[in-house]
Structure formats: C-alpha cells, structure tokens
Design brief:
Blueprint lengths: L3 E3 L2 E6 L4 E7 L6 E4 L1 E8 L2 E12 L2 E10 L2 E6 L5 E13 L2 E10 L8 E3 L1 H4 L3 E3 L10
C-alpha cells in the first residue's frame, strides 16, 4: 500500500467550514482538533448542532470565521497536559497531503497554541506516513 507523506506542519482545508490553515501533525494525539471560541449548541431539525467562532490571528494562520455544523459526538478528551474535558466532535471533509476524506475533529480552545489545528492519528491512519523533517512545502 502506498502512503502519502506528511511533514510536521501541513496545509489543511476544511471546505464545509470554509477554513484553510496550517496545522501541526501530531502522532501523539488520537483525534484532530480545531481552535474554537464562543461555542453555542442549538437544535436544528431535531438534531444537536453547534455554532462556533474560529478566530486565530498569528503568523501561522489568520482566520475569522463563524461556523455551524451538526454535532457528530461528544467525548471526554485528555489533552497533552493531562486535562480532561468534554468536547464536541464534528465529522467533516478534510483536504490534506493530496487526499480528500471525511474525518472527526474535536473543538478545543487552541488560542495559546502556534497553530489553529492539530492533525491526529485517526485522520492519518491508513492514509499517511509522517516525516518530521519535512514541512508543508516538502522541504527538508
């Protein structure tokens, strides 16, 4: 089986949320996560939805987007510092490393992080290998 190669930092597109950004590839994280502020849940057609603000203004990404999407799941996620929190899980289309696929993404406040998005193992499984010496442009 041939796998595409991802570097440490990759360009990601989430077309259903109208978001394009640089993301950190993290083999230590099970689930991908996206920076979100002002998360509000609401009901639409009898289903749970969320509205959230992706506002990120750093050198790595400049995003100011209000998003609405159906909630796929809610899970308790343990962060890298050991903090456990219940998070909303979305299922959305992702374009990365030359592939397009549907994956799960958790909403998390990543305002203190360098990148607005983290790509976890579930999105990479059976699709990509990671070469940490590469970046989004493939330069070592």
């Amino acid at each position: 089986m041939t796998h595409n190669i991802l570097g440490y930092i990759e360009s990601v597109e989430l077309p259903e949320l109208a978001i394009e950004c640089q993301a950190k590839v993290d083999t230590g994280a099970a689930t991908s996560s996206l920076h979100a502020d002002k998360i509000e849940e609401f009901e639409r057609d009898g289903e749970l939805w969320v509205r959230f603000h992706v506002k990120f203004n750093k050198h790595s990404a400049r995003i100011d987007q209000i998003c609405e999407t159906k909630v796929f799941d809610q899970r308790v996620i343990t962060s890298s510092n050991g903090h456990r929190a219940k998070r909303y899980i979305l299922q959305t289309q992702m374009h990365i490393g030359g592939l397009k696929f549907t994956t799960e993404i958790s909403l998390s406040h990543r305002g203190s992080m360098k990148y607005p998005m983290l790509i976890g193992r579930a999105a990479m499984k059976d699709r990509f290998l990671v070469d940490i010496s590469k970046n989004a442009s493939g330069i070592k």
